[in-house]
Structure formats: structure tokens, C-alpha cells
Amino acid sequence: MTTRISRRTALAGGAAGASLLAAPAVWGQAINRDRIILGMTQEPVQFNPILFVNAGTENVPEACLFDALWDINDKGAFVPNLAAQVPSRQNGGISADGLTWTVNLKRDVKWSDGAPFTAKDVEFTYQAIVSPNTPVRSRTGFDLIKAFRVKDDFTIEMELSRPFVPFLWAWQNMHIIPRHILGNEANLATATFNANPVGTGPFLLRSRTAGSHMVYERNPNYHRGPAKVRQFIHKFVPDQMAAFGQARTGEIDYFGLLGVPPDRWTEVRNLPDRDFLVYHTPNVQFIYYNCGKPQFADARVRKALTMALQMQKSIDDIYFGTWPRSLSYLQPTHWAYNSNLKDYTNDPAGAEKLLDEAGWRRGANGIRQKDGVELKFTMSTTAGNVARQGCQALFQQNWKQIGVEMEIRNMPASVVWGEYTTRSQFDTLLVGWDPTVGLDPDYTARAHSRMIPVKHRQGSNYVQYENAEVDRLLELGVTQTEQADRVKTYHRIQEILHEEVPFAAQGGSVQGHLKRKQLVGPTPNQYVTDITWNVQDWHWA
Amino acid sequence: MSAGAVASGGVWRRFLRHRVALGGAVVVALLLSAALFAPALAPQDPTLLDTSVRFLAPFADPRFPLGTDELGRDTLSRLLHGGRVSLTVGLVAMATTVLTGAAIGIAAGYLGGLADTLLMRFVDTMLCFPQVFLLLVVAAFVPPTLLSISLVIGLTSWMEVSRIVRAEILNLKEQDFVAAARALGASRARIMFRELLPNAAAPILVAATLKVASAVLMESYISYLGYGVQPPLASWGNMLTNAQGYFDTIPWLAVLPGLAITATVMGFNFLGDGLRDALDPRLRMDP
Amino acid sequence: MIGFLLRRLLQAIPLLVGVSVIGFGLMHLAPGGPLAVYTLNPTIQAQDIERIKVLFGLDQPVHVQYAKWATGIFSGNWGYTFFGGRPVLGVILERVPATMLLMGSALSIAIVVGLAIGVLGATRRYSVFDVLATSGALVALSFPTFWFGLMAIYVFAIELRWLPSGGMWELGEEGSVVSLLRHLVLPTLVLALVITATWSRYARSAFLEALQQDFMRTARAKGLSPRARLLRHAFPNAAKPLVALLGVELPFLFSGALVAETIFAWPGMGRLFVDALTMKEYPILMGMMMFTAIFVIVGNLLADIAIAAIDPRVRLS
After folding, report:
1. How far is CA B227 from its chain centroid?
2. DSSP string for C234-301
3. pLDDT above 70 covers what percent of chain A?
4. Portion 163-192 of C in contact with B at CB < 8 A
5. Would you say A466 and A454 are in contact if contact means Cβ atoms under 8 Å apart?
6. Minimal Cα distance from B145: which residue of A?
7. B134 preceded by cis ω (within 30°)?
8. Could you tell me which of A190, A355, A502, B71 has the fewest CB atoms within 10 Å of its CB?
9. Nearest to residue A281, comparing CAs of A336, A322, A338, A314?
10. Chain B 154-193, residues with CB within 8 Å of chain A CB atoms
């Protein structure tokens, strides 16, 4: 979810850890009921909703200024926004064979410059997404649209090339852009619209002070009713500690990204006048094993390596127990999570036995080896990420105990996540990711054998995992329309992944957000990366 | 009248009289020995982590005289080993800086003309890169070993030295002793290295000691950012990265490495100042 | 003089070309790049990255990319940022006033105070003042700037609550001079501290050198007052290395401002630079390099002219 790249900016500030020593009772700022100030450690730079890449922070202008066809609420249900209703088999929006999707759009919706919103705007958005000239971040789902028809001003019809249940997520992820403004732009990437966005959303962009903050004003003509505060201010404080300090003094009303550091959670729960929200992000942290490397070719080795690790201890010690332990690529609160999986970690004896069985014996220097290959490898992640370094240090020790040598090799974010990852050059990675199609349990891009970038130039199966049964199940899962069937399919997939361990899940990442008690509205939603998913409802009690 | 004419006894006497400089020399000697003998002096393995003993305060537990950090590693051991790292980088970087800067400065200042222009244009080109930029970019390009970090720091900070030296040479070369040497038939190289260099030694020495100090500071900054010395190898800079998140609850984690850096840098600064005064051949007793 | 200026301007061109080539090469040859950000977005797959690579022009060989960029610069087009598609020149210029304000304030304080301390120290050598000032300068120089900034924030913003901990203005008070000054104090002081200390040391050293020269003895023998000796003889001679130093100090000032800006969340060029470096925003990085290069060239030019003006023996070659 949140890209870790700007974490360095957060660390580089290094200011006022001392700001926390402000008196335990919160002093200072009275509430200004006219406005809400949201504080984050990262600044959005891309305001065109189909072009941004840095989810988490750039979701804010997206949510404030634009709408999608439908949103997802904190219960996991799709809620119509620009669409009149969410298409389904029951209401005829989805044809029986799952290939034709009909969407009725809301009428009387206006763009913030007064122009009317019509189906042509949706068509234009679709065309922009699939155009080769647009640096849109992803086309997942949209590349399956065989035909796009505008039936009338408020109805569209899409024909897919194959049934794809997660198609709803595609449209949830992409907000609609105006045809009457961008239709004539040769290059969407450099249009002036990107600095002066026009949308249908609950707010208008009033001003932007680079490096400092952005001011939004209520859109009086918003189709879901005007927002409840006049001004919404998005403030960027690059240092996490300074932002935390400002949340305590009231200079920030709601502190979101990156949130309160885990070691302060207990203390912060007792603050008067403040609410502490535990925000489950969709993000799960893994160790990625490159199955293409000789040391990791055998699934037993991967399992044994994972067995030797003290995963729970790493969460308890380094994340102060705030993260839920996950055994798969989903957070344990997800509807498709397989809770029958057993945690086999923290078992060095079992690990040693399994390695011996697999033929990896200790050599003269204490390091296991087989057929001339030593069980020696590197682990990489973003340099400067203190928490992950702590995990790496612990894992290094765990592995040393069983005769495995791991060398920590961290690099700046722009290096490690470049070709080092995408061309599967790594040995192991410590990395966190959300699922790949919204919060749908579909994991084709990361686990299907035809999605290996080095071999097939598509997908994001960087670990180069190949398993025919998993392939079959993945292909099945996106066609099943009954939730119960899908649960069965994805449970089985997680079972296999748990046994073969192309990636070893550590835990689900959680953030601690702090807000003023009187601020009503901010609600954790584990199905989105966007904490402003319901910003139009935020108000003062 | 060249520096060689000053009796070495005079140099010593003047140096010893400068008590603050003497203090600096003592500090530097102490630091160098601590760094040299760090493995023997450190009570624990600096990379051993044990979260059951983390966040200990200094003097709370005799096993960890200066407390432990957030992963239970002994602070004193990490300070000692970190000192080793930081000092090594500082000294190697300084050597690189001084050699490069002085050579270029003297050549440019004395030779003048085209050589001066070309060299100074080269200096200008190098100066256009903010040092931090070069350091960070190269840190991505080469594996961040101690040698590469030292070389990069050294090769990006010699420009100031060359300019100071050049200005000093420009000053000196109009003086009589140079004209005299030329009249006596001395070659250009001889004039540059036997006549000008010793007289320019004072600013070079001042610059050199400042450069050790600034190299230590530079290393601490890039390690603090995460680009320099990589954990688990400790350096004073990356100890500060880790400490910054616990600044209010366990301030000594941030204070101690910062003090160590400050003390080291101060030591070299005072030392350099004393050396400068001592070596100045035209020293007067009163202002 | 005109000839000198013209010649220096002509010399500046290959300099700028050299800077741009070295910078461009370093950035593109170094591993990693702006595409790494895309990898971390979970919806993105390898084919998306390939597609974006082509749209950013990064699939072309390095010299082709450079040629495109260079021709752009010549026609005044500094390019667009990868993320956000904003004109690079606009983005940089947006941040310039803040940095200039910070650097200017710090430099002014540093020169005035540093010179004063240095001169006083040189003329009253080994007095209590001199020893205190010299030691004090050395101590000030020894603090790591970023660490000193942290301590300053802790003391003044947190414990004493006299000053804000960061940013340039209070929200809603943009344009208020009082608010700006309150926010300016800490970063300026932190930045100025190190520069003042450097200046005082070099000033003292330069003045001591000048004071030891024979012409000072001559001036004394001529019966000139200490003041006159200082101003008419010592000062011009000491000024030369100091002016040279000023020319060199400018990029270091920028580096120092970078540290101060990140710690105090000051929205200037330094912070823009750090962010651009993390994301490998080549267009901004190249733009900033050219900007700094032009800055340095002009600065050195002025310094050389000043040296020639002070010392008639030096010819502008």
C-alpha cells in the first residue's frame, strides 16, 4: 500500500522525537470547526487519479476531488457512487455468462466547472486507461474489455473477453476524469489539468503550497450532498515524530500515514480528548525466496528455512506486538483468509531435520551444503528502514543457529525495487505488499507460472514460483460467482502456498492513527489503502 | 626564508605552550587508541542482539556500562567499533582530499595561464555537484564498503582546499623569495615543492585537520540517512538513525554517538589549530 | 574587463556541458531508477513497467536520452517531472525563494559575526577573548549539523516552547512576516552556526597572516594608527583568500541548507532535492544540477572580479 520509498524522507527529518515529551496532557490548539486538518508524512504530487502511483498519500486528492463508479465500505460491500447501482447478476447488471456488464449512471451529476457528467466521461476514462500513450499505472481488468458501448447518456455496456469476477475492483480503483477538459490533450502526463484538477468529488482544490500543505474547499454541488466542513487541509510533515507531536498538540486533527510508532501505542490509548484508531492496511510483509536460485529450488528447503525463524517474536519485539501474525498473503481479517493453517515457525529442530532429509548437511565450516552449493544468501530491503533491519538481524541469528548464512544487503529503495526485484535478481527480499486486484483474494499476478517477468515479460511473480495445481485454482477462482465456492478455492491455494513457501508471510501491517475525539467520520477500512475513503462524511461533533 | 629554517625545538615549544591544542592532541591520541584496540576494549559483541536486555540505561547493568539500544545491543561496544569505522573513513578521506586539493591548487596557482584556467574550470565543474548528491548517487552504484565511502567523501571535498591553496600561492608567488629562487635558476617543480609548498603548509594543515573533521561529519550524515555504513556494522552515524525514534524516552541513544562525533571533531580541530600556530615561521610573540 | 567577462561566459558553456554530461551519465548508469516506485504498487505488473518505461523515454540508449534533454534545455524547455508531469523549471523556481531566504539570512549573520570575531581574535591574539572565541568556534564546528538541529528543536520548540518546530508558516498565516520570522529563527541559527564558525576561523587565520607581513611593520614604522593599519593594509590582504572562500562556500551553503531544510521541514530546494533523489526524478535532478552550476559559475565570477579589484597585482587573465 504505502510505497516505502519516501520513508527515507520521513527518517531524514529526524526532528523532535522530543516533541513527544510535550506534557502528557495535550495543550494548545482549539478546534476550528470550519476545517479539518489531516496530517501525513508524505506529499502527493500527482493529482490525476489514473496516473498516480504512490497509493496512500495520493489517494487523498483522489478521494477529495474525484469519484469512481462505486466504492467499497468498511464492511467489504460495494457501494454505488457515480453508478446508480452496483451491477450484479440479480439486478441484471451482469449477464448470466458473466461477460456483459451494464452500468446505469447517476443523473444530475456535475463536474466542478459546471459541465454535466455523462457516459462519455466514463468511456473517455476507459480509453485513456488503455491508450498506449498514457502512463496509467495499471490496466488490470480493463485489458479484458473487448467492447465498450455507450448506450445512452447514462448507460454503458462492457463486454469482457472472459469471465472475471474481480472486475468490480478494477472500476473501484480508477476514478473518472473529464472528457470535456482532457479529451483534446495530446499527452495526459503533462497536461496542466494535473496541477489544476477538475472532478466531480466532494471538494475543490483551493490552493497548494508545495512542501507544506494543500487546501480543499467544499463543493456545494456535490451529488451526494455537500461535505460537512467548509475546508479540508492536507498537511505534510515529513518526520513521523514531528507529525505525532503535532497530533498531540492539536495542530493536526487526524494523523494518518505513517501513524503513531508502535512503541507509543499503549501510552497513546490513554490520551484525553484523543481517539486511537488501529488501521489494518491491506499490506502483508513477507520474505520472498527466489525459487530460481539453486539454494531455494527445493520447497523443503524453503519450508525448513521458514520453520527456523522466530516470526512471532519478530512481531512482538520489533513491532511491539501490534501486527497480526499472518500465514498467507491476506490479512487474517480478510473473508478469504484460511484460518486452519498451522504456524510451524520457531522450530529450529524441525528445520534442521527437514534440511538433513533434503540432503543439506553441515560442512566443515558449519554451513550446510549440497552438491557443492552452500546454503548462503543475501536478504535485501530498503536501506534505512530501521524496523526491517531489526527483523533481518533476528532472522540472521535464527538461521545462523541451523547452519545457514544470511548476509544483509540493503540498498536505497530506487535500486532494490528496480530491476533487482523485477528481473528476479535477488536471493531473498523482505517486502510488504497488498493483494494485486483491490482486496480480491485473486493472486494470479504473483503466483501463476505464466506470470514470471523474466520468462514471460508479464505479471509480478518475481519469486518465479511454478505449480500446476495453483495455476488451475487461480484460473478457477476468478470465474466462480458464489462466495462460498471462492472461499474453498482460495483456502486450498493458501494451503499449498503455506506448504511450498515461495514467500513466507510474517504479519499484516497495521497503522495506529490518532484523531481528536470530537472529529467524527474517520473509520478504518481494511479494504482500501485510502484513509479518506469517506471524507465527505467527516465532521465535527 | 623557508620553513626549514625554523629550529624544530622552537616548533615544539610553541606547540606545547598552546594548551588547548595539547588537549586536542590528547583527545585524538585517546580516540585513535580506542579505535585501534576496540575489539579488546569492547565488553560485548556489537552485533549481538538480545531484546530481553534492550533499552537499559547507562550504569544500570555492569555488563552494559553505557546501556543498550532498541535491539539489546551494547552501546559502549557499538561506540567503540563505530569509532573505528568513523575514524578510518575520516582519515582515508582526508588523505585523499589533501593530496588531490594541494596538488591541483599549487599547480594552478603557480603555473598560471592555460593550466590555471583548465584546472580551475575542472574545480568549478566538480563544485557544481552538491557533495551529498554525488555521495548518494555513487552509494547506489558501488557496494558501500568503507573504502568506497572514504574515497567518495575524499574525492568530493578537495575543491575548497585547492582554492585556498591557489589563493595562497597567488599571494606568495609575487614575493621576493620566489623571485630570488627563480633568479638562482631553480626549476618550476623545485619552486613549487621546495619553496611554495612549505610556505603554504599552514593553510594546508589547517584544511587537513578540518577535513578529517568534516569527513567524519559527512560519514555520519550519510550513514544516518541510510546510505553509508550499513548495519549491522556500527558507525556513529547509523547509531543516530536508530536512536532518533526513541529520542525522548531514551535520549542517551542519540546523545552518546552525537557527543562522540563532536568530541572527535573537536579533538582534530584543536589539534590542527595548535599545529598551525606552531609551524608558522613568521610567528610573533605579540600581536 | 568586457573581454574578461565574455571569455568567462564562453568558458562557462563547456563547463555546463561537462556538468550535465557527468551528471546525466552518473544517474543513468547507476542501478535503479524512477520505475522502482511502480514496483511497490501491488496492481502493477511487469508489462505495465515496460510500458511506462517507454513512455518516460527510458528505453532509449543513454546518449539519445541526453541529446533529447540537451536540445530541450537549449530551447528553454527544462522538461517535465516523471511523477506529476509538472514543468521542471516551475517546480524548482517555486522552491527557490524559501531557500534563498534561509541561505541569505544565515550567510549575512555568518559573515558579519564571523568576520568580527575573526578580526578581533587576530588583533587581540591570545587574549581571553581570542582563546574563548577560537575554542568556541571549534566547538561549534564540531557538532554534526543535523544532530545540532535535533537538539535545538528539543530545547527551543519542545521544552521552552518559544519557537515552532518546523515549517515556514503557521497554517492560515501565510504572508505574515512575524510568523515567518518565528519559523526562520531556528533553521537560520543552526545553519549559520557552522558557517560563522568556519568564517571566524578563516578570517582570523587570514588576518593573522596579513598582520605578520613585513608591510605591517612598515606601516607601523610609518606611524599609522592601529585602525588605519588594519583597514588599509591588513584588510585588503586578508580579504583575498576570504573572497575566494566566499566563492567556494556557496555550494556548501546549499548542502548545509539541505540538512537544515530536511530537519526543519523547510519547503525549499534542499528538500526538493532529497525527495527527487529518493524517487530518482531525473528531470528535477538534472534541472537542479544546472541551476546550481549556473549559481556557482556566477558566484565564482563575482569572486574573481572582487579579488582583482582588491589586489592590483592580480591580473584578470
Report:
1. 19
2. IHHHHHHHHHHHHHHHHHHHHHHHHHHHHHTT--SHHHHHHHHHHHT-HHHHHHHHHHHHHHHHHHHH
3. 95
4. none
5. no
6. A409
7. no
8. A190
9. A322
10. none
